Amino acid sequence: MTIEPFAIERYFAKHEFSARYLLSASDCEGLPMRELIEKSPSPARDMWNQLKLNYTESQGHPILRGLIAAMYPGLQASNILVGAPEELIYITMRTLLKPGDHVVVLAPCYQSLASVAKAIGCTVELWYLHEQFGAWEMDLEELARKLNSKTRLVVVNFPNNPTGFLPNKTQFQQLIQMVSTNGATLFCDEMYRFLEPTDTERLPSASTESNNAISLCGMSKSFSLPGLRLGWLACQDESLISRLLVYKDYTTICNSAPSEVLAIMALYASERILSRNVNMIQVNTDLSRKTFEKFPNLVRWITPSAGSVAFPAWTGNQNLALLVEKWVNERGLMVVPGEYFLVANDHFRVGLGRENYPESLGVLADILGKM
Predict the structure, then answer these.
(1) Please, what is the average pLDDT of the chain?
(2) How far apart are CA 333 and CA 272, in angstroms?
């Protein structure tokens, strides 16, 4: 199996730890370990203090899986598989797909959602979001035209990275029904779930709406703990969990014991963490709109519906790919252009979940002002 380079990860590897300003970070401001531990309830702190660095259960710590399952009405700990998010994408596609299968992937997207299936030998067809009336929209009629008898998997991401798009609940149910009727599996990347402006705007998890759906979520984005390298899959089909574990034995086998306990602490504190992040995103979203409105000949702001990222349009005459290289080299400002999300290079991602976002945005505003 030959797989293409993971372009955005190579780009981050080149600039993330040297650039002074990360305008395009996708996660929310990281939590200090001391704060997480000190504010945890006594049972969780006891788990941490008594922790031995032994092997862990391959499916994930039972307490952790129980806390996760509590976020999915109708699911139990047995319906949850814990692992690194990227690992879970990989083992799911290796388990479900074979060469010649047809896969539809909603784009723009995180590259691995398409590249792993392509490397397996599947026919991968991108289904694009469209910008209309200053907002992102998905065309379900277009999806219907793409589905066929060989379609084994439909991959979506809500809230979407990089656009911040979130369908309404009627559209979401129509999507689930279309995929199920076609006999395919729906893989829903929900890594940015819980970052909706209000709880009423949150979609139900795909995994609770259909036995043909698998949901991916984790600690990296909404819960401010990307360094844990921990996420989970949720699905109603316990036999699929068993099949996925067969592949996990050839990747990590089991998870990091400290990461699992720290994740338990974070889920106990989820209300506090999520409230902090949603408030930060809202402040940074308002600032972005006001800032980019000053440069209508260069940028068109598109307000995201949910999540910690947005995908404004570049309307200037200059080549954006060349510009971002100049910005990072001369000003230390890292901006990720649209090409890294499998779309034309006329958009760029901004990350709204960092405390220093106003400072990074100010650098870009200075650059745009001089243009």
Answers:
(1) 97
(2) 31
Count the alpha carbons within 13 Å of 299 in the hemisphere toward its beta carbon.
Answer: 25
The CATH code of domain 7-32+271-370 reads 3.90.1150.10
- Positive or negative, the Cα torsion across 36, 38, 43, 45? positive
| CA–CA distance, 192 with 206 (Å, rounded to integer) | 14
pLDDT value, residue 102: 98
Each residue of 162-171: pLDDT tens digit? Answer: 999 999 999 9
Residues of the chain with CATH 3.40.640.10: 42-269
Q: Which residues contact 286 (CB under 8 A, 6 or more apart)?
A: none
The answer to whether residue 81 scores a pLDDT higher than 80 is: yes
Cβ-based neighbours of 157, under 8 Å, separated by 6 or more = 106, 109, 110, 113, 188, 189, 190, 191, 192
Query: Residue 72 carries which DSSP code?
Result: S
Task: Quickly count: other Cβ atoms within 10 Å of residue 6's Cβ.
Answer: 17
Contact assessment for residue 229 and residue 223, using Cβ atoms and an 8 Å cutoff? no
Q: Domain 42-269 adopts which CATH fold?
A: Aspartate Aminotransferase; domain 2 (3.40.640)
371 neighbors 327 (Cβ within 8 angstroms): no
Look at residue 344 in the predicted model and tell me its pLDDT.
Answer: 81
pTM over 0.85: yes
Q: What is the dihedral of CA 7, 12, 14, 19, to 10 degrees?
A: 150
What are the start-end ranges of the E strands in the chain? 21-22, 80-83, 102-107, 123-128, 130-132, 135-137, 151-157, 185-189, 213-218, 231-235, 299-300, 309-310, 313-314, 333-334, 336-337, 348-351
Mean pLDDT of 60-68: 98
Closest C-alpha among 4, 8, 13, 10 to residue 339: 8
Please give the average per-residue pLDDT across 210-235, as a whole number. Answer: 98
